[in-house]
Amino acid sequence: MAPPAHRTATLTQGPIASTLLLFALPILASNVLQSLNASVNAIWVGHFLGESAFAATSNANLILFFLLGVVFGISMATTILVGQTTGAGDLAEAKRVVGTGTVFFVVLSLLVALGGFIGTPGLLRAMGTPIDAQPYAIAYLRIIFIALPAMYFFNFLMMTLRGAGDSRTPFVFMLVSVVLDVALNPLFIFGWGPVPRMGIAGSAVATLIAQTLALFGLIAHLYRHKHFLRIQRHEWGLLRPDPAVLRSLVLKGLPMGMQMIVISSAAIVMISLVNRHGSQTTAAYGAAAQLWTYIQMPALAIGAAVSSMVAQNVGARLWDRVTRIGRVGVGFNFLMTGTLVVLIYLFNRYALGLFLPGDGDAIAIAQHLNAIVVWSFLFFGVTFVIFGVVRATGAVMAPLVILTVSMWGVRYPFAALLEPRFGADAIWWSFPLSSLLAVTMAMTYYRYGGWRKARMLAEPAPEAAQAPTTGVGTPAMTAKVED
Protein backbone atom coordinates (compact mmCIF):
# COMPACT_ATOMS: atom_id res chain seq x y z
CA MET A 1 0.00 0.00 0.00
CA ALA A 2 1.40 3.37 -1.00
CA PRO A 3 2.03 5.90 1.78
CA PRO A 4 -0.06 9.02 2.08
CA ALA A 5 0.67 11.71 -0.46
CA HIS A 6 2.31 14.01 2.09
CA ARG A 7 4.89 11.30 2.77
CA THR A 8 6.26 11.51 -0.76
CA ALA A 9 7.54 14.52 -2.63
CA THR A 10 5.84 13.79 -5.94
CA LEU A 11 7.16 15.46 -9.05
CA THR A 12 4.46 14.03 -11.29
CA GLN A 13 1.72 16.53 -10.45
CA GLY A 14 1.23 20.27 -10.25
CA PRO A 15 2.78 23.13 -12.22
CA ILE A 16 6.03 22.15 -13.88
CA ALA A 17 7.87 25.48 -13.80
CA SER A 18 7.50 26.26 -10.11
CA THR A 19 8.06 22.63 -9.08
CA LEU A 20 11.27 22.38 -11.13
CA LEU A 21 12.57 25.71 -9.88
CA LEU A 22 11.90 24.94 -6.22
CA PHE A 23 13.52 21.54 -6.66
CA ALA A 24 16.60 22.91 -8.49
CA LEU A 25 17.42 25.79 -6.13
CA PRO A 26 18.52 23.61 -3.18
CA ILE A 27 20.71 21.57 -5.56
CA LEU A 28 22.29 24.78 -6.83
CA ALA A 29 22.83 26.01 -3.27
CA SER A 30 24.45 22.67 -2.36
CA ASN A 31 26.87 22.96 -5.30
CA VAL A 32 27.80 26.50 -4.29
CA LEU A 33 28.35 25.39 -0.69
CA GLN A 34 30.70 22.61 -1.77
CA SER A 35 32.77 25.01 -3.88
CA LEU A 36 32.93 27.61 -1.11
CA ASN A 37 33.89 24.92 1.39
CA ALA A 38 36.81 23.80 -0.78
CA SER A 39 37.90 27.41 -1.28
CA VAL A 40 37.82 28.25 2.44
CA ASN A 41 39.76 25.11 3.34
CA ALA A 42 42.34 25.97 0.67
CA ILE A 43 42.71 29.45 2.16
CA TRP A 44 43.46 28.04 5.62
CA VAL A 45 46.06 25.64 4.28
CA GLY A 46 47.63 27.95 1.70
CA HIS A 47 47.91 31.06 3.86
CA PHE A 48 48.91 29.48 7.16
CA LEU A 49 50.72 26.23 6.37
CA GLY A 50 52.77 27.25 3.34
CA GLU A 51 53.19 26.37 -0.32
CA SER A 52 54.27 22.76 0.25
CA ALA A 53 51.14 22.05 2.26
CA PHE A 54 48.98 23.75 -0.37
CA ALA A 55 50.63 21.69 -3.12
CA ALA A 56 49.94 18.58 -1.03
CA THR A 57 46.22 19.28 -0.78
CA SER A 58 46.07 20.11 -4.50
CA ASN A 59 47.53 16.71 -5.40
CA ALA A 60 45.40 14.87 -2.86
CA ASN A 61 42.23 16.58 -4.04
CA LEU A 62 42.88 15.45 -7.62
CA ILE A 63 42.73 11.85 -6.38
CA LEU A 64 39.61 12.60 -4.34
CA PHE A 65 37.91 14.29 -7.30
CA PHE A 66 38.58 11.23 -9.45
CA LEU A 67 37.18 8.85 -6.81
CA LEU A 68 34.08 10.97 -6.24
CA GLY A 69 33.62 11.44 -9.99
CA VAL A 70 33.40 7.70 -10.61
CA VAL A 71 30.91 7.18 -7.78
CA PHE A 72 28.89 10.20 -8.95
CA GLY A 73 27.63 8.22 -11.92
CA ILE A 74 26.45 5.32 -9.79
CA SER A 75 24.78 7.77 -7.40
CA MET A 76 22.99 9.35 -10.35
CA ALA A 77 21.85 5.91 -11.48
CA THR A 78 20.38 5.49 -7.99
CA THR A 79 18.57 8.81 -8.35
CA ILE A 80 17.01 7.74 -11.64
CA LEU A 81 16.03 4.26 -10.45
CA VAL A 82 14.46 5.62 -7.28
CA GLY A 83 12.73 8.34 -9.31
CA GLN A 84 11.27 5.89 -11.81
CA THR A 85 10.04 3.43 -9.21
CA THR A 86 8.66 6.18 -6.98
CA GLY A 87 6.89 7.80 -9.92
CA ALA A 88 5.40 4.44 -10.81
CA GLY A 89 4.11 4.07 -7.26
CA ASP A 90 6.19 0.89 -6.84
CA LEU A 91 7.67 1.70 -3.43
CA ALA A 92 8.64 -1.93 -2.81
CA GLU A 93 10.93 -1.75 -5.85
CA ALA A 94 12.24 1.66 -4.71
CA LYS A 95 13.19 0.11 -1.36
CA ARG A 96 14.89 -2.75 -3.18
CA VAL A 97 17.02 -0.16 -5.00
CA VAL A 98 17.88 1.52 -1.70
CA GLY A 99 18.80 -1.82 -0.09
CA THR A 100 21.03 -2.88 -2.96
CA GLY A 101 22.61 0.58 -3.18
CA THR A 102 23.31 0.64 0.54
CA VAL A 103 25.27 -2.62 0.48
CA PHE A 104 27.06 -1.67 -2.73
CA PHE A 105 28.22 1.73 -1.46
CA VAL A 106 29.25 0.42 1.96
CA VAL A 107 31.33 -2.43 0.51
CA LEU A 108 32.81 -0.28 -2.28
CA SER A 109 33.74 2.56 0.06
CA LEU A 110 35.41 0.24 2.58
CA LEU A 111 37.47 -1.45 -0.15
CA VAL A 112 38.53 1.86 -1.69
CA ALA A 113 39.32 3.34 1.73
CA LEU A 114 41.48 0.36 2.72
CA GLY A 115 43.30 0.18 -0.59
CA GLY A 116 43.79 3.95 -0.70
CA PHE A 117 45.10 4.14 2.87
CA ILE A 118 47.69 1.46 2.15
CA GLY A 119 48.59 2.73 -1.32
CA THR A 120 48.71 6.47 -0.58
CA PRO A 121 52.52 6.88 -0.86
CA GLY A 122 52.63 4.99 -4.16
CA LEU A 123 49.72 6.98 -5.60
CA LEU A 124 51.39 10.27 -4.78
CA ARG A 125 54.74 9.17 -6.20
CA ALA A 126 53.03 8.02 -9.40
CA MET A 127 51.47 11.48 -9.74
CA GLY A 128 54.88 13.11 -9.43
CA THR A 129 53.95 14.95 -6.24
CA PRO A 130 56.88 17.21 -5.24
CA ILE A 131 59.20 15.58 -2.69
CA ASP A 132 58.76 18.36 -0.14
CA ALA A 133 54.96 18.07 -0.39
CA GLN A 134 54.75 14.28 -0.08
CA PRO A 135 54.85 14.03 3.76
CA TYR A 136 52.02 16.59 3.98
CA ALA A 137 50.04 14.85 1.25
CA ILE A 138 50.40 11.42 2.89
CA ALA A 139 49.19 12.74 6.26
CA TYR A 140 46.25 14.53 4.63
CA LEU A 141 45.18 11.88 2.12
CA ARG A 142 45.25 8.95 4.54
CA ILE A 143 42.72 10.66 6.77
CA ILE A 144 40.63 11.56 3.73
CA PHE A 145 40.56 7.86 2.84
CA ILE A 146 39.29 7.11 6.36
CA ALA A 147 36.55 9.68 5.71
CA LEU A 148 35.71 8.21 2.31
CA PRO A 149 33.03 5.71 3.49
CA ALA A 150 31.10 8.56 5.15
CA MET A 151 31.52 10.71 2.02
CA TYR A 152 30.31 7.94 -0.30
CA PHE A 153 27.31 6.97 1.78
CA PHE A 154 26.34 10.58 2.46
CA ASN A 155 26.39 11.23 -1.28
CA PHE A 156 24.35 8.06 -1.90
CA LEU A 157 21.64 9.13 0.57
CA MET A 158 21.45 12.65 -0.87
CA MET A 159 21.02 11.35 -4.40
CA THR A 160 18.44 8.81 -3.21
CA LEU A 161 16.39 11.56 -1.59
CA ARG A 162 16.55 13.67 -4.75
CA GLY A 163 15.26 10.71 -6.74
CA ALA A 164 12.37 10.48 -4.28
CA GLY A 165 11.58 14.15 -4.92
CA ASP A 166 13.29 15.80 -1.92
CA SER A 167 16.16 18.21 -2.58
CA ARG A 168 15.69 20.33 0.55
CA THR A 169 16.75 17.74 3.13
CA PRO A 170 20.06 17.02 1.31
CA PHE A 171 20.73 20.76 1.19
CA VAL A 172 20.10 21.19 4.93
CA PHE A 173 22.55 18.43 5.85
CA MET A 174 25.06 19.62 3.25
CA LEU A 175 24.88 23.01 4.99
CA VAL A 176 25.50 21.30 8.33
CA SER A 177 28.51 19.48 6.89
CA VAL A 178 30.02 22.61 5.35
CA VAL A 179 29.52 24.76 8.45
CA LEU A 180 31.14 22.10 10.62
CA ASP A 181 34.03 21.64 8.19
CA VAL A 182 34.76 25.36 7.95
CA ALA A 183 34.48 25.86 11.72
CA LEU A 184 36.60 22.83 12.65
CA ASN A 185 39.44 23.50 10.18
CA PRO A 186 41.25 26.16 12.23
CA LEU A 187 40.55 24.25 15.45
CA PHE A 188 42.33 21.09 14.31
CA ILE A 189 44.97 22.81 12.18
CA PHE A 190 46.23 25.09 14.96
CA GLY A 191 44.93 23.30 18.06
CA TRP A 192 43.17 24.84 21.04
CA GLY A 193 42.87 23.69 24.63
CA PRO A 194 42.80 19.89 24.73
CA VAL A 195 42.76 19.70 20.91
CA PRO A 196 46.35 19.18 19.67
CA ARG A 197 47.88 21.12 16.78
CA MET A 198 47.65 18.77 13.81
CA GLY A 199 48.68 20.93 10.87
CA ILE A 200 47.50 19.77 7.47
CA ALA A 201 46.17 16.52 8.95
CA GLY A 202 43.81 18.68 11.01
CA SER A 203 42.11 19.92 7.84
CA ALA A 204 41.38 16.31 6.86
CA VAL A 205 40.19 15.48 10.39
CA ALA A 206 37.75 18.39 10.18
CA THR A 207 36.36 16.93 6.95
CA LEU A 208 36.12 13.46 8.53
CA ILE A 209 34.19 14.73 11.55
CA ALA A 210 31.92 17.01 9.52
CA GLN A 211 30.99 14.32 7.01
CA THR A 212 30.45 11.67 9.67
CA LEU A 213 28.25 13.86 11.88
CA ALA A 214 26.23 15.05 8.89
CA LEU A 215 25.76 11.45 7.73
CA PHE A 216 24.54 10.19 11.11
CA GLY A 217 22.36 13.27 11.49
CA LEU A 218 20.75 12.58 8.12
CA ILE A 219 20.15 8.91 8.95
CA ALA A 220 18.62 9.86 12.31
CA HIS A 221 16.41 12.43 10.58
CA LEU A 222 15.12 9.85 8.09
CA TYR A 223 14.21 7.35 10.79
CA ARG A 224 12.80 9.93 13.20
CA HIS A 225 10.47 11.23 10.50
CA LYS A 226 9.69 7.69 9.27
CA HIS A 227 10.79 8.31 5.68
CA PHE A 228 8.99 5.95 3.33
CA LEU A 229 12.30 4.61 1.92
CA ARG A 230 13.90 3.75 5.26
CA ILE A 231 14.86 0.10 5.70
CA GLN A 232 13.11 -1.25 8.80
CA ARG A 233 14.16 -4.23 10.93
CA HIS A 234 11.71 -6.63 9.30
CA GLU A 235 13.04 -5.53 5.87
CA TRP A 236 16.70 -6.36 6.42
CA GLY A 237 16.35 -8.97 3.69
CA LEU A 238 16.40 -6.04 1.25
CA LEU A 239 20.08 -5.58 2.12
CA ARG A 240 20.78 -8.70 0.07
CA PRO A 241 21.79 -7.17 -3.30
CA ASP A 242 19.34 -7.67 -6.16
CA PRO A 243 21.37 -8.75 -9.24
CA ALA A 244 19.23 -6.81 -11.74
CA VAL A 245 19.38 -3.61 -9.70
CA LEU A 246 23.11 -3.98 -9.04
CA ARG A 247 23.78 -4.57 -12.74
CA SER A 248 21.80 -1.47 -13.62
CA LEU A 249 23.62 0.69 -11.06
CA VAL A 250 26.99 -0.33 -12.46
CA LEU A 251 26.26 -0.53 -16.20
CA LYS A 252 24.23 2.70 -16.25
CA GLY A 253 26.28 4.50 -13.61
CA LEU A 254 29.75 4.02 -15.05
CA PRO A 255 29.03 5.88 -18.34
CA MET A 256 27.65 8.80 -16.31
CA GLY A 257 30.75 8.76 -14.13
CA MET A 258 32.90 8.65 -17.25
CA GLN A 259 31.39 11.98 -18.30
CA MET A 260 33.12 13.57 -15.30
CA ILE A 261 36.39 11.95 -16.30
CA VAL A 262 36.05 13.19 -19.90
CA ILE A 263 35.47 16.74 -18.67
CA SER A 264 38.32 16.73 -16.14
CA SER A 265 40.84 15.06 -18.48
CA ALA A 266 40.00 17.53 -21.26
CA ALA A 267 40.59 20.40 -18.84
CA ILE A 268 44.02 19.00 -17.94
CA VAL A 269 45.01 18.73 -21.60
CA MET A 270 43.72 22.22 -22.43
CA ILE A 271 45.71 23.84 -19.64
CA SER A 272 48.85 22.21 -21.05
CA LEU A 273 48.22 24.21 -24.24
CA VAL A 274 47.60 27.37 -22.25
CA ASN A 275 50.86 26.92 -20.32
CA ARG A 276 52.83 27.33 -23.57
CA HIS A 277 51.89 31.00 -23.66
CA GLY A 278 53.51 31.95 -20.38
CA SER A 279 52.56 32.56 -16.79
CA GLN A 280 50.46 35.66 -17.51
CA THR A 281 48.19 33.74 -19.89
CA THR A 282 48.00 30.80 -17.49
CA ALA A 283 47.07 33.14 -14.64
CA ALA A 284 44.42 34.76 -16.84
CA TYR A 285 42.97 31.39 -17.80
CA GLY A 286 42.99 30.27 -14.17
CA ALA A 287 41.09 33.36 -13.04
CA ALA A 288 38.55 33.03 -15.85
CA ALA A 289 38.09 29.35 -15.02
CA GLN A 290 37.21 30.29 -11.44
CA LEU A 291 34.33 32.39 -12.79
CA TRP A 292 33.32 29.69 -15.25
CA THR A 293 32.83 27.25 -12.36
CA TYR A 294 30.06 29.43 -10.96
CA ILE A 295 28.57 30.23 -14.37
CA GLN A 296 28.10 26.51 -15.03
CA MET A 297 26.47 25.76 -11.66
CA PRO A 298 22.88 26.69 -12.64
CA ALA A 299 23.01 24.41 -15.69
CA LEU A 300 24.37 21.52 -13.64
CA ALA A 301 21.72 22.03 -10.95
CA ILE A 302 18.90 22.29 -13.49
CA GLY A 303 20.19 19.20 -15.30
CA ALA A 304 20.21 17.22 -12.04
CA ALA A 305 16.73 18.48 -11.11
CA VAL A 306 15.41 17.65 -14.57
CA SER A 307 16.77 14.08 -14.23
CA SER A 308 14.92 13.53 -10.96
CA MET A 309 11.70 15.07 -12.22
CA VAL A 310 11.75 13.29 -15.57
CA ALA A 311 12.56 9.96 -13.90
CA GLN A 312 9.42 10.14 -11.78
CA ASN A 313 7.29 11.09 -14.78
CA VAL A 314 8.83 8.32 -16.88
CA GLY A 315 7.93 5.89 -14.10
CA ALA A 316 4.39 7.28 -14.15
CA ARG A 317 4.45 7.22 -17.98
CA LEU A 318 3.44 10.87 -18.22
CA TRP A 319 5.32 11.53 -21.44
CA ASP A 320 3.67 14.86 -22.17
CA ARG A 321 5.09 16.16 -18.88
CA VAL A 322 8.53 14.79 -19.78
CA THR A 323 8.57 16.94 -22.92
CA ARG A 324 7.39 20.03 -21.04
CA ILE A 325 9.95 19.51 -18.26
CA GLY A 326 12.70 19.56 -20.86
CA ARG A 327 11.41 22.79 -22.38
CA VAL A 328 11.02 24.48 -19.00
CA GLY A 329 14.51 23.34 -18.01
CA VAL A 330 16.01 24.89 -21.13
CA GLY A 331 14.10 28.10 -20.41
CA PHE A 332 15.42 28.25 -16.83
CA ASN A 333 18.93 27.65 -18.12
CA PHE A 334 18.70 30.65 -20.44
CA LEU A 335 17.30 32.76 -17.61
CA MET A 336 19.74 31.78 -14.86
CA THR A 337 22.90 31.14 -16.86
CA GLY A 338 22.08 34.09 -19.12
CA THR A 339 21.87 36.39 -16.11
CA LEU A 340 25.33 35.34 -14.95
CA VAL A 341 26.74 35.72 -18.46
CA VAL A 342 25.36 39.27 -18.73
CA LEU A 343 26.77 40.14 -15.30
CA ILE A 344 30.21 38.88 -16.31
CA TYR A 345 30.17 41.00 -19.46
CA LEU A 346 29.04 44.07 -17.51
CA PHE A 347 31.54 43.59 -14.67
CA ASN A 348 34.22 41.59 -16.45
CA ARG A 349 37.26 43.46 -15.14
CA TYR A 350 35.89 43.77 -11.61
CA ALA A 351 35.03 40.07 -11.39
CA LEU A 352 38.47 39.03 -12.65
CA GLY A 353 40.02 41.52 -10.22
CA LEU A 354 38.93 39.23 -7.39
CA PHE A 355 41.67 36.84 -8.53
CA LEU A 356 44.17 39.02 -10.42
CA PRO A 357 46.04 42.29 -9.72
CA GLY A 358 44.47 45.19 -11.57
CA ASP A 359 47.72 46.54 -13.06
CA GLY A 360 49.12 43.41 -14.71
CA ASP A 361 48.90 41.98 -18.22
CA ALA A 362 46.96 38.93 -17.02
CA ILE A 363 43.74 40.79 -16.33
CA ALA A 364 43.65 42.21 -19.86
CA ILE A 365 44.21 38.73 -21.30
CA ALA A 366 41.48 37.34 -19.05
CA GLN A 367 39.01 40.02 -20.18
CA HIS A 368 39.76 39.16 -23.81
CA LEU A 369 39.30 35.40 -23.40
CA ASN A 370 36.14 35.88 -21.34
CA ALA A 371 34.66 37.96 -24.14
CA ILE A 372 35.22 35.03 -26.51
CA VAL A 373 34.17 32.15 -24.25
CA VAL A 374 31.53 33.18 -21.70
CA TRP A 375 28.49 33.37 -24.03
CA SER A 376 29.00 29.74 -25.04
CA PHE A 377 28.01 28.54 -21.57
CA LEU A 378 24.41 29.23 -22.52
CA PHE A 379 24.67 26.35 -24.99
CA PHE A 380 26.63 24.23 -22.56
CA GLY A 381 23.63 24.61 -20.27
CA VAL A 382 21.15 23.52 -22.94
CA THR A 383 23.28 20.42 -23.56
CA PHE A 384 23.22 19.43 -19.91
CA VAL A 385 19.50 19.97 -19.57
CA ILE A 386 18.96 17.67 -22.56
CA PHE A 387 21.35 15.16 -20.98
CA GLY A 388 19.26 15.39 -17.81
CA VAL A 389 16.14 14.42 -19.76
CA VAL A 390 17.52 11.52 -21.78
CA ARG A 391 19.56 9.88 -19.02
CA ALA A 392 16.45 9.76 -16.81
CA THR A 393 15.12 7.00 -19.07
CA GLY A 394 18.38 5.04 -18.96
CA ALA A 395 19.94 6.42 -22.16
CA VAL A 396 23.44 7.09 -20.79
CA MET A 397 25.81 6.27 -23.66
CA ALA A 398 24.75 9.05 -26.04
CA PRO A 399 25.66 11.89 -23.61
CA LEU A 400 29.06 10.27 -23.02
CA VAL A 401 29.72 9.96 -26.75
CA ILE A 402 28.61 13.55 -27.40
CA LEU A 403 30.87 14.91 -24.67
CA THR A 404 33.82 12.84 -25.86
CA VAL A 405 33.42 13.93 -29.48
CA SER A 406 32.95 17.61 -28.62
CA MET A 407 35.85 17.84 -26.16
CA TRP A 408 38.37 15.34 -27.49
CA GLY A 409 37.34 15.22 -31.14
CA VAL A 410 36.81 18.96 -31.65
CA ARG A 411 37.98 21.20 -28.80
CA TYR A 412 41.49 19.89 -28.36
CA PRO A 413 42.32 19.21 -32.06
CA PHE A 414 40.99 22.63 -33.11
CA ALA A 415 43.09 24.39 -30.48
CA ALA A 416 46.22 22.32 -31.10
CA LEU A 417 46.13 22.57 -34.91
CA LEU A 418 45.34 26.28 -35.17
CA GLU A 419 47.38 27.51 -32.21
CA PRO A 420 50.61 27.92 -34.24
CA ARG A 421 48.80 30.31 -36.59
CA PHE A 422 46.34 32.13 -34.32
CA GLY A 423 48.08 31.84 -30.97
CA ALA A 424 46.06 31.61 -27.75
CA ASP A 425 42.91 32.76 -29.57
CA ALA A 426 42.69 29.29 -31.12
CA ILE A 427 42.37 27.88 -27.61
CA TRP A 428 39.70 30.38 -26.59
CA TRP A 429 37.60 29.85 -29.75
CA SER A 430 37.74 26.07 -29.31
CA PHE A 431 35.39 26.43 -26.31
CA PRO A 432 32.39 27.99 -28.13
CA LEU A 433 32.98 25.77 -31.16
CA SER A 434 32.82 22.57 -29.10
CA SER A 435 29.82 23.89 -27.14
CA LEU A 436 27.88 24.61 -30.32
CA LEU A 437 28.70 21.19 -31.72
CA ALA A 438 27.69 19.49 -28.45
CA VAL A 439 24.31 21.25 -28.29
CA THR A 440 23.65 20.44 -31.96
CA MET A 441 24.37 16.75 -31.42
CA ALA A 442 22.35 16.70 -28.18
CA MET A 443 19.32 18.31 -29.82
CA THR A 444 19.58 15.94 -32.79
CA TYR A 445 19.66 12.94 -30.48
CA TYR A 446 16.75 14.33 -28.45
CA ARG A 447 14.71 14.74 -31.61
CA TYR A 448 15.61 11.55 -33.47
CA GLY A 449 17.31 9.22 -30.97
CA GLY A 450 15.77 6.23 -29.24
CA TRP A 451 16.09 7.51 -25.68
CA ARG A 452 12.35 7.12 -25.02
CA LYS A 453 12.73 3.36 -25.43
CA ALA A 454 15.69 3.09 -23.06
CA ARG A 455 15.33 1.25 -19.76
CA MET A 456 17.24 1.37 -16.51
CA LEU A 457 16.43 -2.23 -15.62
CA ALA A 458 17.06 -5.01 -18.14
CA GLU A 459 13.97 -6.85 -16.94
CA PRO A 460 11.15 -4.32 -16.61
CA ALA A 461 8.30 -4.93 -14.23
CA PRO A 462 5.09 -6.42 -15.63
CA GLU A 463 2.99 -3.79 -17.32
CA ALA A 464 0.11 -2.35 -15.34
CA ALA A 465 -2.79 -0.24 -16.44
CA GLN A 466 -1.86 2.81 -18.48
CA ALA A 467 -2.14 6.02 -16.51
CA PRO A 468 -3.74 9.02 -18.16
CA THR A 469 -1.13 11.29 -19.71
CA THR A 470 -2.85 14.55 -18.88
CA GLY A 471 -0.27 15.47 -16.27
CA VAL A 472 -2.85 15.22 -13.50
CA GLY A 473 -3.71 11.51 -13.50
CA THR A 474 -2.72 8.94 -10.90
CA PRO A 475 0.74 7.48 -11.70
CA ALA A 476 0.71 4.03 -13.18
CA MET A 477 1.92 1.31 -10.85
CA THR A 478 4.81 0.22 -13.01
CA ALA A 479 8.49 0.87 -13.50
CA LYS A 480 8.37 0.00 -17.18
CA VAL A 481 9.62 2.64 -19.62
CA GLU A 482 7.96 2.78 -22.99
CA ASP A 483 7.88 5.14 -25.89
UniProtKB/TrEMBL annotation:
Coiled coil: none annotated. Pfam families: MatE (PF01554). Keywords: Cell membrane, Membrane, Transmembrane, Transmembrane helix, Transport. InterPro entries: MATE_fam, MdtK-like, Membrane_Transporter-Flippase. GO terms for cellular component: plasma membrane. The keyword Transport applies. The keyword Cell membrane applies. It is found in: Cell inner membrane. It is a multi-pass membrane protein. GO terms for molecular function: antiporter activity; xenobiotic transmembrane transporter activity. The chain crosses the membrane at residues 62-85, 97-118, 138-159, 171-192, 198-223, 256-274, 294-316, 328-348, 368-389, 396-414, 426-446. It comes from the Bacteria. This is Putative MATE family efflux protein. The lineage of its organism: Bacteria, Pseudomonadati, Pseudomonadota, Gammaproteobacteria, Lysobacterales.
